[in-house]
Amino acid sequence: MKVLLIGSTGVMGTALQSENRGRFQITPKDHNDLEIKDVNQVRRVLDEEKPDYVINTSAYLGVEPCAANPGEAFAVNTEAVRNLSKLCDKRNICLVQFSTDSVFDGRKGDLYTEDDQPNPLNLYGMTKYMGDLFVRNLCRNYYIIRIPILFGPRQNAGSIFIDKMYRHVLSGADELRIADDVISCPSFSNDIAQGVYSLMDSGKECGLYHIKNEGVASLYDFAKVFFEKMKLPVRILRAKAADFSVNETEMKPLNTAICSVKTDHMRPWQDAMEDYIKILKSQPQEAL
Ligand SMILES: NC(=O)c1ccc[n+]([C@@H]2O[C@H](COP(=O)([O-])OP(=O)(O)OC[C@H]3O[C@@H](n4cnc5c(N)ncnc54)[C@H](OP(=O)(O)O)[C@@H]3O)[C@@H](O)[C@H]2O)c1
After folding, report:
1. pTM for this structure?
2. Domains of the chain: which residue ranges?
3. DSSP-assigned beta bridge partners for residue 151
4. How far is the CA of 268 from the centre of ligand 1 (A)?
5. 226: pLDDT confidence band, cut at 50, 70 and 90?
6. Which CATH homologous superfamily contains domain 2-219+243-287?
7. From ligand 1's centre to the CA of 31, what distance in Å?
8. Would the pLDDT of 152 be above 60?
9. Nearest to residue 84, comparing CAs of 63, 58, 120?
10. What would the pLDDT profile of 237-262 be if each residue is shown by its tens digit?
């Protein structure tokens, strides 16, 4: 089966390639190869490659960047996904689209399942959720994969929460203040990639699936476990999300931990982190 992978250099793009292990014939497209906002370019690539699946990991990520550049957030996360949905549907291609736990408002007080109604609080969550709706409504053959906060290797220079913390420490920080009231489910991109491929192999019906490692943690817990396992002498101090609010108009949901009523349990995130740390330790530090 042929897969066109959009966003091949990011965290999920990297994992989907390393975990493929010959299952699918993947054509990776990075941002230089393909601009997802350019509908004519996307159409041309689909017609050249004729994939059975398109996996779209590209996104305009993050609460602050999306607030600072709402037009770009809408163009990449919503409008491009709407166009991709229509193009895939017309060609009978299965679209595998990544979503985020940031579509939830964090007020449930319990784990969010696939049945819970999103209610995004910020532009990032809103533009991603609108993208999900277009996939669901415009493409008959689709999987929406909703995932929580990631850790994992990447080929590009972007950075996710734990990479940023690690960089601070590598550049000399001996203490970090981290919110203990922001709760998610840290998950290893390689495990998620395996979950995605199992889903695609399973022939399960189209729809929305939550995929994550087992367990729930605050950002504080997440960082503490990471640095303990890395055996780095850094003090992790408790803080609150409100201590870091930089944008007055954007709200961040506090507890967006998810679970699934449709997919199998995966190993705990702390066990998965052991594997990530092995990969990190085998890389030169400047690779981060
Ligand atoms: N990272 C997380 O913790 C997290 C949590 C929940 C959900 N998600 C979701 O999971 C998906 C994958 O996230 P990720 O962390 O793998 O993202 P990422 O590391 O930022 O990778 C995104 C990829 O898409 C490419 N890209 C960005 N804009 C593009 C555009 N306009 N046209 C074509 N390609 C473009 C990037 O290339 P360049 O870097 O060269 O621009 C990169 O290869 C996203 O849908 C995201 O919303 C991520």
Report:
1. 0.96
2. 2-219+243-287
3. 188
4. 24
5. very high
6. NAD(P)-binding Rossmann-like Domain (3.40.50.720)
7. 10
8. yes
9. 58
10. 999 999 987 676 778 999 999 999 99
